[in-house]
Give the backbone structure.
Amino acid sequence: MLYIKCPHCGMRSQNEFSYGGDATIKRPELGKEISDQDWDNFVYNRKSLRGKHWELWQHISGCRQWIKVERDTATHEIFNTLKANEEISL
Amino acid sequence: MQKYSVFSLVKNALSNHENWDLAWKDPTPKKEYDVVIIGGGGHGLATAYYLAKEHNITNVAIIEKGWIGGGNVGRNTTIIRSNYMHDDNALFSEFGMDLWRRMSQDLNYNVMFSPRGIINLAHSDAQMNTYARRGNSMRLNGIDAVLLNREEVREIIPMADFSDNVRFPIFGGLMQPSAGTARHDAVAWGYARQADDMGVDIIQNCEVIGFDVSAGKINGVRTSRGDIKAKKIGLCVAGSTNILAEKLNMTLPIETHLLQACVSEPVKPVLDKVVTFGAGHFYISQSDKGEMVMGGDLDGYNSYAQRGNLPTLQHVLTEGIAMMPFLSKLKMLRTWGGIMDMSMDGSPIIDKTHIEGLYLNCGWCYGGFKATPASGWTFAHTIAQDRVHELNAGYSLNRFNTGHLLDEKGLGTKTWIS
């Protein structure tokens, strides 16, 4: 069982959350000319890092807010959590 | 190589089974090979076997970080099937079914292929309609499919819950009678033994540290046991694909996720089919030892941990008990996890890459084991001929860029939504 510290609600069990994938992916800017490759990278291509990984989770059975979580994908240790609008400092 | 037969069994029994040949050697890596296959799992071993057998390329090394057959080919639920709707998946898998049927003879190794049939249960009229459509598509591609109504399903699996007040009543099911199971370890060992006999070097405890790429061409691989030159290198590393892709500066439409399976204590024969729950993700069969072999959903977040987490196991087994209530009386014997190379459309990739001489085999999601022979056969063809075979033409790497997705289950791009 993972325990995730929701920045809004505090420490909660994994059962209350749903997963949203890599949090470092940026959607291409609206109105800007982009290539098929840029779009491919945004929609499909992922680094899927082994080790520290910033990812999105939604506290779906709690405050329903999206949050950012820094977790180790090999050990499942969680280092840090942020609100969705807080910038990741890599 | 000593041929396995009843005569060799009797002969070796007389000497207390102390004089059997080693099934494969433990060679020191050479400086150069024609082809290097990275990954000594089912797909890598099968690829090397078919390179030697179909293309006479025997100067081949398989390099494996751990021991052969220790990854997903040793961790799956052994289900073999070709019940796909889309042509690309159906034709590829049915080609594999033919290889499965002949495998024990081809490899001179009993892989215990058991074509016992698979039933996908339906729990609504709408689901029966989609199964009828899939069954018809299968039959058009020459694959056996039978649509069963509720009573026909009840005759085959009376232990399922047919009571009146269940949340997901069984409306019927789609059966592929020729689907089944096989002994997973035997598949790896059988391919390894034959490949070794034809001259392939199986090099274990050999980790890839980096690649030698220059001017868009692959020249070799750097390993923990020294540099190995090769003009052609094939990647068959399933859940470790992204780790090697990073060393090649490639970003792939793959995420690595954790999938669990489990077996119950052994019980007397009760279930002679593979059965899947249609209102969630749960599948079950009974092994020859009597254990109920079960699996289902991913743990749901990117993971390289080859061990599972209890919430998912609880969720999956809740589905199992909803389908077959007697399971609640059984004790759990073992649970384990493997790391899956989940592609963004749920279908695999067997293709060339932008690096000349580098070939990619990944994206097997939930279905890597059943694809072992067809994957090895087509990947060997792709490497030997430097072009894809028509059977794996749909499994291209650039389909995500061009929009030609193979979204068999309609799960879309989010692998964790299932």
User: Anything to note?
Assistant: The radius of gyration of chain A is 14 Å. The interface with chain B takes residues 1-2, 14-15, 18-19, 21-22, 36-37, 40-41, 43-50, 53, 55, 71, 73-76 of chain A (CB under 8 Å). Helices of chain A lie at 36-43. Chain A has one domain: 1-23+48-90.
